[in-house]
Amino acid sequence: MRVVHNVANGPNVDGILDGKMVLKGVAYKAISDYLEISSGIHNLSIYVSGTDKLIANWGLNLASGYAYTLIVHGLITDLKSIAPLLLQDNLICPAYGKAHVRFVHAAASIPGVDIYAGDNKVFSDVKYGETGNPTYLPVQAGQVQISVTTTGSNQVALGPIPLQLSSGGIYTIIATGLLGDTTSPLSALISEDSKGSCIMMYL
């Protein structure tokens, strides 16, 4: 499991799993490496880094043999809104010449959105706290421009963002930030989840 700090304007945090610190000083927008964790039920607590100030605490149930991304999202101004979004990752290599793209709406201030690749709508009406459908979209590798609009609108809220998709690449795009906020404006976190491993397998 890897963890994403997606609470805009939130402080650096420490992650305590089953009483043991596993992440220290994690900043907003940081995506951790994958942590190897046993299957079963675990307790994760998030603290302001270096303090005993608890931000949130959850139980997680992890199945054996799977990879997960845990996105911590919500508003720092309302601690009750901070919640875990636990996603199961599919790291199976795409077909040669293809890439897989997953979009996650985790920008707390934004209603439902549509996502475009160039002029083509690829995900429709993705609500806050959800992923696009299909979860992993197979697309042609190469250069693409990603834009985000509010659902049913032609007004671009984010983008266009240039994205170079590698053959065999698996990408997660996470909408983050706050609309109209100057410190943490609406933006996107982009992670290449396969990190070249699929290219090596093709060879």
What do these coordinates show?
By secondary structure, the protein is mainly β. It has 2 domains: 89 residues, Immunoglobulin-like (Sandwich); 113 residues, Sandwich (Immunoglobulin-like), CATH 2.60.40. Helix content is 3%, strand content 55%. The protein has 1 helix and 15 strands; from the N terminus they run E-E-E-E-E-E-E-E-E-E-E-E-E-E-E-H. Strands 3-2-4-5 form a 4-stranded antiparallel beta sheet, with no helix packed on it. The chain starts with a strand and ends with a helix.
Short description:
The chain has 203 residues and is an all-beta fold.
* Biggest sheet layout: 4 strands, antiparallel
Class by helix and strand content?
A: mainly beta
Oligomer: single chain
**Alpha carbon gyration radius:** 17 Å
- The rounded distance between the terminal residues' Cα atoms is 27 Å
The appropriate CATH architecture of the largest domain is: Sandwich
> Helix count, per DSSP?
1
General form = globular
Helix content: under 10%
Order of helical and strand elements: EEEEEEEEEEEEEEEH
Strand content: over 45%
**What top-tier CATH class of the largest domain fits best?**
Mainly Beta
Mean pLDDT across every amino acid position: 93
Overall tally of domains: 2
The CATH topology of the largest domain is given as: Immunoglobulin-like
Biggest β-sheet: strands ordered side by side in the sheet: 3-2-4-5
Which ranges are low-confidence, i.e. pLDDT below 50, for 5 or more consecutive residues? none
Q: What is the β-strand count?
A: 15
